[in-house]
Design brief:
By secondary structure, this protein is an alpha/beta fold. It is built from 18 helices and 19 strands. The longest helix has 17 residues.
């Protein structure tokens, strides 16, 4: 039997393993350096409270992805009104039934959740995307609103060409005034560099279909939409109003995927890190794997290698003859990520009838320039089952940083205090209401689109020369993918293996094509 070694047990790696078992005779062996599966889509548990790192909506314009998720975790019976709408027609194949006597339980399900995210600016909440409502006009003021409109018209009449930077991209779609009000500061907080230095490709991949025009059309059509239309076909991802979500957080999906892989004679090894690759004639024939618990290194032969390793790491292991390729890969930029999980008695914004005073948002973009806090998650609103005590509010305070910088290097207690102080400073909590907290650090969370990224094509070409190597996933492709993009790249890799096709263009086309599924009707 042929063997595929898979580096990483995140969405891409586990999707690849599952698909190989479904569609081929290739046996997957997954090595994951972490102590749990899921990658950045894992669920962190702290004293019974569950954290979602970054916030993962289970929504995709890909029918294949939606079917795949629901084959593993069906929609909960309490969401029966939405169930039929979530079952797409024309799926590509049947999935196997639950294995080893597994059955659908009240816990082994996904919930249908309402989606709300807003911007917090000038100590006020603004709808995201902005709505031309009386409330928005009141908060901005008529003069400022008129200036935004005039700026948008000017940008549409005289757009910037060429559209080289993210600043150009946002200016052309929103106008200079709106870009500077609601996009510039937050984006530069995320990436740590000016928008003028970030490639327009980032905007093209993340928000390519969104503009003021589409936001206005979406708002005007709101009264005509059915409240249970969870599929939301033809709706931009940034505008969706409902999504699926595993009852106990995103990691529940990938724990179930790993269980099914192992039940079908695949292997998933935690705390095992790939530290070397052995190749010949542009084929990887074996990998060296270190057991992080014992420190022992063993060699595993393979016929295929599917990698979610950072591009910098796999390139170094493959030892390119071209020094420039090695230089580009080593210098590819990343943005790292920290979350302060903060448990509080209540929040400060008053909501009638709610003693917790908790806003209804899934997450809030913090646009305030006087704090480093980038985004605030309210885990209660993702799923009430993420919170051990429903009378408390469980928050995720998200910070964007670089590994080793001042924020990253703070002791946990100092960072928790710093984060709580910032949230109190902008008036969202009272420090006296803080009960507990924890800190999670995620290195290489966001592949960045500046610096040496401009020459990443040379590295991709080098990786494509290796006939049985398939880079997938966010870090594996150095691309800011959502989890559905990572899954589709993994599917494309398995397609290549099943068809004995060494052309990997389909992998790199995911989340890059003009007709990609996020905008396709």
């Amino acid at each position: 039997m042929k063997t595929a070694v898979i580096a990483g047990a995140g969405p891409a790696g586990l999707t690849a393993a599952f698909e190989l078992l479904e569609r081929s005779g290739v046996r997957p062996i997954v090595f994951e350096a972490d102590q749990q599966v899921g990658g950045i889509s894992k669920t962190i548990v702290y004293r019974g409270n569950r954290m979602d790192l970054g916030g993962h909506r289970f929504f995709s314009k890909s029918e294949w992805v939606m079917n795949w998720w629901q084959a593993l975790l069906p929609v909960a019976t309490e969401s029966a009104g939405d169930r039929n709408l979530l079952r797409y027609q024309g799926q590509e194949r049947e999935f196997t039934a639950p294995l080893n006597g597994a059955r659908v339980t009240d816990d082994n399900v996904m919930l249908v959740r309402s989606r709300l995210s807003r911007i917090f600016y000038r100590r006020k909440f603004f709808d995201y995307p902005l709505k031309l409502s009386l409330e928005t006009l009141r908060k901005l003021g008529p003069g400022y609103t008129a200036a935004i409109g005039a700026s948008y018209v000017a940008a549409r009449l005289a757009p910037r060409h060429p559209e080289a930077s993210l600043e150009d991209f946002l200016h052309n779609r929103f106008g200079d005034r709106l870009y500077r009000t609601f996009f510039k500061d937050y984006t530069e907080k995320v990436w740590g560099v000016p928008c003028s230095e970030i490639s327009a490709e980032w905007g093209a991949q993340r928000i390519k279909g969104l503009s003021i025009t589409k936001a206005v059309k979406h708002a005007l059509a709101a009264p005509l939409r059915k409240s249970t239309d969870t599929r939301q076909k033809g709706t931009e991802t940034s505008l969706i109003e409902r999504f699926l979500y595993p009852k106990f957080g995103p990691g529940q999906m990938w724990e179930e995927a790993a269980r099914r892989v192992a039940a079908r004679n695949g292997e998933v090894h935690l705390r095992h890190r790939i530290v070397g690759l052995l190749g010949n004639a542009r084929r990887v024939e074996a990998v060296d794997v270190r057991d992080e618990t014992t420190g022992q290194v063993r060699r595993q032969a393979c016929d295929y290698f599917i990698s979610t390793l950072p591009v910098s790491e796999i390139t170094a292991m493959l030892k390119p003859e071209d020094a420039r390729v090695a230089q580009i890969a080593k210098a590819l930029p990343y943005r790292d990520f920290m979350t302060a999980g903060l448990l509080v008695k209540r929040m400060q914004p008053t909501h009638a009838g709610d003693p917790s005073r908790m806003p209804p948002d899934n997450w809030i973009y913090i646009q305030e320039p006087d704090v480093k806090l980038g985004r605030l998650q309210i885990f209660n609103n993702w799923s009430p089952h993420l919170v051990a005590d429903p009378s408390t509010v469980w928050l995720g305070l998200e910070y964007f940083c670089r590994e080793g910088d001042e924020l990253w290097s703070m002791a946990d207690a100092a960072f928790l205090d710093f984060a709580a102080q910032e949230l109190a400073k902008i008036g969202l909590i009272d420090l006296a209401d803080v009960l507990d907290g924890t800190v999670v650090r995620v290195p290489k969370a966001y592949p960045a689109y500046f610096g040496e990224y401009r020459d990443i094509g040379r590295v991709r070409s080098f990786l494509d020369e290796w006939h049985n190597v398939y880079p997938v996933g966010r870090n594996g492709m150095h691309r800011y993918n959502n989890q559905d993009h990572s899954m589709l790249a993994a599917k494309a890799a398995v397609d290549c293996i099943v068809a004995a096709d060494t052309n990997k263009a389909a992998l790199w086309a995911v989340n890059a094509e003009d007709e990609y599924h996020e905008t396709r009707k």
